[in-house]
Structure formats: structure tokens, C-alpha cells
Design a protein that fits this description.
196 residues, alpha+beta, seven-stranded mixed β-sheet, 7 strands, 26% strand
Length: 196
């Protein structure tokens, strides 16, 4: 098991994460290239220019990632996002923009709860079964070593919300994101926190 820094420019790091979540996090369209780009934008928007973008690998194969940021620390990928957005057809541009607005809105909500002593777990994905817990433990140990007191995170109904509740995370806020909702099914959002 090797803990290292995630490299956004390395396809061997990025592609396994996209492969793992593309069916869960992308819009319902037949264009798989757009779906992969959409998910890549999510991954990049959750990354920050800091020392808290971790990955665990085994024998050179990526197994899990955990990204975090400090209060009000934002993604450095705006130029990348704008270039990709501008190259898309109009309908895809709209989906791309709504997704970015959603991620930004949730980040601002969570920053409203945080102090300078808190850290935000921005993204947490296990590409291989059983590798989520080890990277989260490594990441949390690192956050403690940097003096952070509480870890916040947000998630939504696309993820396993119960996973956090079972592991002692406290629900801070529950909401609904209307643009992703339907009359039959509201798109629920959740903010959790956990002492470090």
C-alpha cells in the first residue's frame, strides 16, 4: 500500500476514478465522452492546490482517493473548465454549467459552517473494494497532524448517505437541489461533520 499525491494530469490516476463513478454521477445521455468529461469536471472542481489530495495505490494501481481543502479554498481548474465548457454544444454547456453551480453552491454552504480549524473532505472515492477505510484513516491522521479539529463533508442522494451516519458523522444540514429534482423524486443534499 502506497500513499501519494493525486496527479490530475496523469490518466493512470484520473481514469480509474472516472471509470468508477461515471455511471453514478453523469447525466442521462448516450454520449459517453460527454459523461466522462462531466465527471472529470466534478473531480477537478473538488481538487484544490494544496497538500491534501491523496491517493492510495497497490503495485502501481490506484485504489482510492481522498481530497480535502481548507475554508474558502477553491479549485484551481477554472481555466480548464471554461475551455471545456466553450467547446461543448449548447445543451451540454447548460448541463456542465448547472453542475458547476451545484458544486459551488454546496461548497459555499459547507464553508458557512467551517472555521479556520476545520477541514472539508471534498471527494472520497474507492476504486477497489475495501480501500475506502484505509485512505480515510490516513487522510484524517494527516488532518489531525495539521491541527484541524473537525472534518466537514457534503454529499447527496447519489452516494451512500447511510455510510456516514453509521460511522458517527453528525448530520448538520439536509436540503434539496431543485434543478436536479423531479416531482416524484427530490434531489437531496446532506452536510455532515465529525470531530478529528
Amino acid at each position: 500500500m502506497t500513499l501519494g499525491k493525486f496527479d490530475f494530469n496523469n490518466p493512470k490516476h484520473l481514469n480509474p476514478v472516472i471509470d468508477r463513478v461515471v455511471e453514478l454521477w453523469s447525466p442521462p445521455t448516450d454520449d459517453m465522452n460527454f459523461r466522462r468529461l462531466y465527471v472529470e469536471a466534478i473531480i477537478r472542481q473538488n481538487g484544490a492546490d494544496n497538500d491534501m489530495q491523496f491517493q492510495l495505490s497497490e503495485n502501481g494501481e490506484l485504489c482510492s482517493i481522498a481530497f480535502a481543502s481548507r475554508k474558502n479554498q477553491h479549485s484551481p481548474w477554472y481555466g480548464w473548465w471554461q475551455e471545456k465548457h466553450d467547446s461543448l454544444p449548447e445543451g451540454f454547456q447548460e448541463m456542465f454549467s448547472v453542475n458547476r453551480s451545484y458544486l459551488s453552491m454546496m461548497d459555499e454552504k459547507i464553508y458557512g459552517y467551517m472555521t479556520d480549524n476545520d477541514v472539508k473532505l471534498s471527494l472520497f472515492v474507492s476504486t477497489k473494494s475495501g480501500w475506502g477505510k484505509p485512505i480515510l484513516e490516513e487522510a484524517m491522521n494527516f488532518y489531525r497532524s495539521k491541527g484541524f479539529k473537525t472534518m466537514y463533508l457534503w454529499t447527496d442522494c447519489e452516494c451512500n448517505v447511510e455510510w456516514y451516519a453509521i460511522r458517527g458523522y453528525e448530520l448538520v444540514e439536509e436540503g434539496t437541489f431543485e434543478p436536479f429534482s423531479t416531482p416524484e423524486e427530490p434531489y437531496k443534499t446532506y452536510i455532515f461533520k465529525k470531530p478529528l
